[in-house]
Amino acid sequence: NAGVTQTPKFQVLKTGQSMTLQCAQDMNHNSMYWYRQDPGMGLRLIYYSASEGTTDKGEVPNGYNVSRLNKREFSLRLESAAPSQTSVYFCASTVGGVVDYGYTFGSGTRLTVV
Amino acid sequence: QKEVEQDPGPLSVPEGAIVSLNCTYSNSAFQYFMWYRQYSRKGPELLMYTYSSGNKEDGRFTAQVDKSSKYISLFIRDSQPSDSATYLCAMSPWGAQKLVFGQGTRLTINP
User: Fold this and answer.
1) What is the pLDDT of residues B50-68, one digit of tens each?
2) Dist CA B104 CA B6 (whole Å)
3) How many CA atoms lie within 13 A of A13 on its CB side?
């Protein structure tokens, strides 16, 4: 029972490089989310997908794109990384289209942009 | 002003103490209230979940919701060093597609 799996766990990028953060869940959840966590800022929603085939912007979407590849997988892409995107990124999922029962989180990706 | 306010701490208490963690919120539509625990370098994990007002107890943990004051609390009795973590409150209205999180409170229990 893996839950939510994120890859990679750590990454260092140079300014202007691109990369894709991968997320997969094996719980047959419908909704998936990408958050970033910064000191003093808490968890901020980047993008979410309420169901397969749909994506919506969250609080801080600029500089990011997402793809809901299928029901299991939701990827986050940084097209041209900037130092301000240095953060810890968490993927989460929940069973239904609403969040009544809370999220299950992955273990995070620590990204440093130099 | 943020929809959910949480004192970031840090909070440091001796082992065995009763700990009180709190969040205030401004959106009267919030119905679902949760507490997450996050150990260092790990993802948050759901600790307690309550619907509407009232108390919920699970072992040493009690979650309390006061909707009239727009205030929620998490109490930890007989605190242990293993309770040292960041605690995040989260909440949502009925039918919402995403949670709103507090900033998190960093808690240290000293042996």
Assistant:
1) 888 889 999 999 999 999 9
2) 6
3) 25
